Amino acid sequence: MPAKSRFVRLDAFTKTVEDARIRTTSGGIVTIVSLLIVMYLVWGEWVDYRRVLVRPELIVDKGRGERMEIHLNITFPRIPCELLTLDVMDVSGEQQVGVEHGVSKVRLMPEKQGGRVIDVQAIDLHSADEIASHLSPDYCGECFGANSPESALQPGCCNTCDEVREAYAGMGWAFGRGEGVEQCEREHYGERLDSQRHEGCRIEGNLRVNKVVGNFHIAPGRSFSNGNMHVHDLNNYYETPIESKHTFTHKIHQLRFGPQVPSELSQNIGSQLAWTNHHLNPLDNTEQATDEPAYNFMYFVKVVSTSYLPLGAKKTLMDTYTDTSPLGSHGVNSDGSLETHQYSVTSHKRSLSGGNDAKEGHKERVHARGGIPGVFFSYDISPMKVVNREERAKSLIGFFTGICAVIGGTLTVAAAVDRGVYEGTSRIKKLHQK
Predict the structure, then answer these.
(1) How many CB atoms lie within 10 A of CB 126?
(2) Fewer beta carbons within 10 angstroms: which end of the chain, N or C?
């Protein structure tokens, strides 16, 4: 048997001769409708293929020796910038005392005058005109029994009020307003401080910390260590000449750990997970008020590492960052991926004078007496990590499979409909002929 005959026997698509075919108006309508349906469904398959989904995964965080950045923007309307100190410490023993790098103190007008910005720069109570630059080059200011600070311009001397204050802090001594201190009287430190007592302050900027359990706090007065205790010089905070005392009423405009998630990415994730508040910073726009100077606000934060990997991003961890990298660059990778953090928070506040919460109906809740007034943030690091990975909703093979299914299924249904219409029409005609 010839080879051609063998293939003819295997033909599953038998044909009819042209003369045996019947073309009808209903068949033409069904064909046009089926073609429109095929085009619409193929377009839907294309849109689905182009759609990008964000698929979350939960893994163990295997990062070691990492650093993370904390961005903060907090307003204190009832305490001047000169009295505020920002300190950071963690369980590894690292301390950052009186943080200034990457952080700005913005002087604000009193609340009654609208709280507008006075000066974006850090407060200047030690004007260059008043510093010892006009004195003899051989001048060596007294440190009044304290050791000269390492940052002194002239080793072994305290030529400015700020150097005397730093020397006192190094010894763990309270400083006060600088009465009897030649350098401070020359710079009019006490008078300038008193003239700014009614002002407020906004602290904003970035901190870079070890990714371990730790805390940062904003408290009054210069801080120093006394044995194993971390203490602050509170004299100028409590002993104020103004009638309205200083308090730690505050508003947290923004607090986040790591870089901000782009708005388009947040919207994309939020539209897919409408039942969650995905990657919102829960402390943003938080306000707390008190009329007591001796009052303490505490926030306990649980930080969860979070990665966002766009299409085409490497499936490895973040790029390498060092302490010399610019603040604000940490976590933003060259391939478009993002290493940041989410957090949950609980808060607590108490009066440092002790007592209970009988006014709030909880007299059984007793507070300890003593402590440092201020705003404290204690953060803990979760061992788990959330990875949000962008993926195509459908693969290329799935796309072509879907097109074949659309075409085949639509034409099969159309053929069945056309056959049914034809048979029905034929029977009706036969009935009329009888």
Answers:
(1) 18
(2) C
pLDDT score recorded for residue 434: 63
Cα–Cα distance, 242 to 112 (Å, whole number):
15
Tokens of 216: 């940062």
pLDDT digits (tens, 9 = 90+) for 7-26: 666 655 566 666 667 777 88
* Positive/negative CA dihedral, 260, 262, 266, 269: negative
410: which 2 tokens?
Answer: 């639509």
Q: How far apart are CA 178 and CA 300, in angstroms?
A: 36
pTM value? 0.74
Say which residues have a Cβ less than 8 Å from residue 347's Cβ, sequence separation at least 6.
288, 297, 298, 299, 300
Residue 130 has pLDDT above 70, yes or no: no
- Per residue in 113-125, pLDDT tens? 877 887 655 434 4
DSSP at 332? B
Long-range interactions of 177-185: CB distance < 8 A, separation 24+: 177/235, 177/236, 181/144, 182/141, 182/142, 183/132, 183/141, 183/158, 183/159
Tens digits of residue pLDDT in 49-101: 888 888 888 899 887 778 889 999 999 999 998 889 999 999 988 888 888 88
Round to whole Å and give the CA distance between 347 and 390: 34
Quick check: 296 and 332 in contact, CB under 8 A?
Answer: no
Closest C-alpha to 194, from 184, 203, 202, 204? 184
What is the predicted pLDDT for the residue at 323?
58
* Selection from 259, 300, 268 nearest residue 282 by Cα: 300
Helix (H, G, I), strand (E, B) or coil at 272: helix
